[in-house]
Automatic annotation (TrEMBL):
GO BP terms in the entry: nucleoside triphosphate catabolic process
GO molecular function: nucleoside triphosphate diphosphatase activity
Cellular-component GO terms for this entry: cytoplasm
The keyword Hydrolase appears for this protein: yes
Top-level taxon of origin: Eukaryota
Entries under SUPFAM superfamilies matching the protein: ITPase-like
Xref: PANTHER family: INOSINE TRIPHOSPHATE PYROPHOSPHATASE (PTHR11067:SF9), INOSINE TRIPHOSPHATE PYROPHOSPHATASE/HAM1 PROTEIN (PTHR11067)
Protein name stated in the entry: Inosine triphosphate pyrophosphatase
Family per similarity comment: Belongs to the HAM1 NTPase family.
Keyword Ligase: no
Keywords from the named record: Hydrolase
Length: 124
């Protein structure tokens, strides 16, 4: 049985908010050509909080600036010993467990006022 490739119909290309051309290449390599993308570097605030919340808020802010569909990405390094708390490497000296993981949060918004959809990826 052959796989069916569904096309997403959008009124215009999705703006991937990044100043990094390599990130855009990676997104296109993963998603393929089923969704048209363009990139734009925006000056969004450095937010604090949970990665999923940060990504969603960035998508909301970007959608307002672009006035259209956007995809944003936020990556953080999480140290298991700190149990989600932010901190510097010197905080880890007190812990035996110095393992960490990278958490990448992508959020998509259809445009201003739309609730962003968030996708999380975690590497051990």
């Amino acid at each position: 049985m052959a796989a069916v490739k569904a096309a997403v119909v959008l009124p215009r290309p999705v703006t991937f908010v990044t100043g990094n051309a390599k990130k855009l290449e990676e997104v296109k390599a993963i998603i393929g050509d089923s969704i048209p993308f363009k990139s734009l570097k925006l000056d969004l605030p450095e937010l604090q909080g949970e990665p999923e919340d940060i990504s969603k808020e960035k998508a909301r802010l970007a959608a307002l600036q672009v006035n259209g569909p956007v995809l944003v990405e936020d990556t953080c390094l999480c140290f298991n010993a700190l149990k989600g708390l932010p901190g510097l490497n010197n905080l880890l000296m007190a812990y035996e467990d110095k393992s960490a993981y990278a958490l990448c949060a992508f959020s998509f918004s259809h445009g201003p006022g739309a609730e962003p959809l968030t996708f999380l990826g975690k590497t051990p």
